[in-house]
Structures are given as C-alpha cells and as structure tokens.
Amino acid sequence: MNTTTLNPGIARDADAPAADAPHAPAQAQSQEGIREWGPEMAVAGFLMFLGALVVFDSLRMGAGWAEDGPQSGYFPFYIGLMLLASSGFVLFKALAAWMARGEGGEQPELLTRTFVGRDELQLVMAMLVPATLYVVAMGFVGLYASSVVLIAWFMRRHGGFGWPLSAAVSVGVPLTVFVVFERWFLVPLPKGPLEALLGL
C-alpha cells in the first residue's frame, strides 16, 4: 500500500530538507564587509585614551576633597576611571577573542560577526565622501559654489533627475539661502573668489 497517498504530510516532511538545501550555503556563508572586531578595538582604544586623559587632567586640577567640598577634578576623575575601566574591559575581550582565533578550529563569534556589510559600506561612503569634499571645498570656494556642485551631484547621481531640474534646484537653493541669510538676517556666510568677483 502506498503510504504517501494516505499520509501526504510524510511526503512534505521528506521533501522539506531538499527545499531548504539551496538556502543552506547562503546562510552558512558569512557576509562580506568589515568584521565587528576591528571597529570594537578601535573605539575601545580611543575611549581608553579619552578616559586616561580625563583622569590625568583631573589629577592635575585636583581630584580630592577640600575643606569647602570636592575639588575641580573630583567628579571628572571618577567618570574618567569608569570610562577607562569599561573600555579596557571591551578591549581585553576583543584581544582575548583575537588570541583564541585558532583554537579548536572554530572562530570566536566576535571575529565572525559583521559590523557593516559591503553594500551598506558603499552606501555610507557614497554620502560621506561627497559631504567631506563639500566641507573641504567650502574653505576654498565658499558655501554657495560648493553647495551648487553638491546638490547637482546628488540629484544627478543618486536622484536620477535631468540636467534642467538639477541645475535649477542646485542654483535656486543657494540663491535662496543667500537672500534669506545675507540680505534679510544680515548673517554673512563663507564666500569664495566667485562671490568676490561678483562683488557680493
């Protein structure tokens, strides 16, 4: 007697591993990108440096208890100690995971977890790099000229807008900012050689 026809659930259970089999390699494969261990080490080391700096400066100002109450560095001293201890624990934990990376043939979880994937990192850099160049260029060409280029770049590159609309918005927004701040509120904003050439 064919038990498959009497109990269809058996057939579904038997087929379940085969259906899930194509997804198993994708789940087992770790995502490409920056592992969590590196940023955790960097942030913990930076916070340890800040904590040590706070403790040292608090001792310089006085971290004890005077006759009229706590000295200037009393509370910052203990805050720096807590920051130093907590970040030191995180750093020690990350170093221990790194040192145990070859034992037992299995990587510690801290070394395998992904802090940011490659796709997410590309999105972040797509915003961070133009914004950084914008800030740097502002010191040479001023706020308005650099804003025109930045807005036009984002509209064309990431927004997919045509040149007429991109040009209108990229020129219109800095012009509106100029009128509002420079003419109405009389607040000067950073200018460059183009504004000087136009007498603005």
Describe the model.
Helix content is 74%, strand content 6%. With 200 residues, it is mainly α. The strands form two sheets. It has a two-stranded antiparallel ribbon with strand order 1-4. Strands 2-3 form a two-stranded antiparallel ribbon. The longest helix is centred in the C-terminal third of the chain and has 42 residues, at 118-159.
What keyword list fits this structure?
200 residues; two-stranded antiparallel ribbon; mainly alpha; single chain
Beta-strand proportion: 5-15%
Write the element-wise H/E pattern from the N-terminal end onward: HHHEHEEHHEHHH
Compute the number of helices.
Answer: 9
How many discrete structural domains?
2
Can you give the mean pLDDT? 79
Determine the N-to-C terminus distance.
Answer: 95 Å
The rounded Rg comes to: 29 Å
Biggest pleated-sheet summary: 2 strands, antiparallel
Give the beta-strand count: 4
The spatial strand order of the largest sheet comes to: 1-4
Globally, the shape reads flat
Estimate the helix proportion, in percent.
over 70%
Runs in which pLDDT lies below 50 for 5 or more consecutive residues are 1-30
Which class of secondary structure composition applies to the elements?
Answer: mainly alpha
Could you provide a short overview of the structure?
With 200 residues, the protein is mostly helical. The chain has 9 helices and 4 strands, in the order αααβαββααβααα.
Topology:
Elements: H1 3-6, H2 8-20, H3 23-28, E1 33-35, H4 37-61, E2 65-66, E3 69-70, H5 74-99, H6 109-112, E4 114-117, H7 118-159, H8 163-184, H9 193-198
Antiparallel strand pairs: 1-4, 2-3
